[in-house]
Amino acid sequence: MSETTDGNVSVVANVWKIAPGEQARVWEDCLESGCITINWLNDLNFNDFSSKREITRALVKAKEGGEGGAPFIWHFVHDIKKKDVVVANDGRSRAVGIGIITSDYLYPKHRKNPRRGFGYHNHVRRVKWLIKVPIDLRRNFFNTQTVLLLDPIHCDEIKQAYSNQYPQLTETLDRLFPSDADYEQAADINFVLQSPNLSATSKKALVNARLGQGWFRESVLRRWGGCCAVTSSSTDKAIRASHIKPWKNCTNKERLDPENGLPLIASLDALFDRGLISFEPSGRMIVSSLLNAAERKIFGIEKASLRKPPTTKMAAYLAHHRKHALKR
User: Fold this and answer.
1) Are both 18 and 73 inside the same structural domain?
2) pLDDT string in tens for the chain (328-residue length)
3) Dist. CA 127–CA 203, nearest whole Å
4) Are residues 189 and 83 in the same domain?
5) Most buried among 41, 57, 246, 323, by the most CB within 10 A?
6) What number of other Cβ atoms are within 10 A of residue 39's Cβ?
7) Which domain holds residue 228?
8) Do residue 163 and residue 69 come from a single domain?
9) What is the 8-class DSSP label of residue 275?
10) Which whole-number Å values give the CA distances from 294 to 146, 264, 290, 299, 328, in the listed order?
11) What is the pTM of this model?
């Protein structure tokens, strides 16, 4: 999963489609120079413009496409962040490479701009290109916009197409493209970050809780002696501190309540999150009928239970999970 940061908060990276020129005509230059470019007003610094309207006026004055280019320029300069993912396309049905943004916007005369002095495609973001081979996609897969934020459906199609043709890239693709759960997490985080009635401290605490980090994670682990609540594993990097009552159904107070958390190794956390296991008030594990005997043996959950009975408050959270999340 590709991640970026917002202050001290980790969030899922966005995935952008950016065309390296018409029919990818500067793709080889971008690949060689480690960058991606746009090609408007190559003698100006877009940092000097405070709004899309100002950019539009400059485009109209220079007779470079009118207002149509302003939103794409704004995305390129302001909305794209370091560690976001970029897919370079050739026309509407072909991707030619995928990488990670490694710099802020570099204006044409910036001393670190690898295309300084070229006279065209001079607006740059540095990129670490991780996938450098092309892939054909379905007809008209991309639209004609120069810079576009890709949705989860398009990202999954790109990922699957590359995985099918280049199986050796699967691990890299998994790092680049968020999973469905990652997107859901990102939406929750974005909601918190944009909430006008929360202080910066509250936002950070809530986001960390959603990610299973910070004070929430420490408090949840402390209640279980720093170990998985089922297996007793103490391998910290393999343990996730997840909410019992799903985040989307919680109040902000419940989201920060360590009684609403269980430290579980990654495999059990995934099963719990997807409603394939839950726990009785006694702590005995309930396994969904969707998991057959062979799968239960693989996961080691035939006769599993929590290492200690849940508290009264935790039992209430578990009751909600059994009722609303468990797939019987």
Assistant:
1) yes
2) 444 444 444 456 789 999 999 999 999 999 999 999 999 999 999 999 999 999 999 999 888 766 678 999 999 999 999 999 999 999 999 999 999 999 999 999 999 999 998 989 999 999 999 999 999 999 999 988 999 998 878 998 999 999 999 999 999 998 898 766 676 777 778 778 878 888 988 888 888 888 877 888 989 999 999 999 999 999 988 999 989 998 889 999 999 999 999 999 999 999 999 999 999 999 999 999 999 999 999 999 989 999 999 999 999 999 999 999 999 8
3) 30
4) no
5) 41
6) 18
7) 182-324
8) yes
9) T
10) 50, 21, 11, 9, 18
11) 0.62
- Please name the amino acid found at residue 262: L
Q: Encoding tokens for residue 97? A: 């490479």
Which of 124, 159, 178 is the last residue before a domain boundary? 178
d(CA 26, CA 6): 31
Structure-token pair, residue 81: 């962040």
Q: Give all strands (DSSP E) within 40-122, no chain letters.
A: 85-89, 94-101
Tokens, residue 90 = 């050739």
Residue 272 and residue 265 in contact, taking contact as beta carbons nearer than 8 Å: no
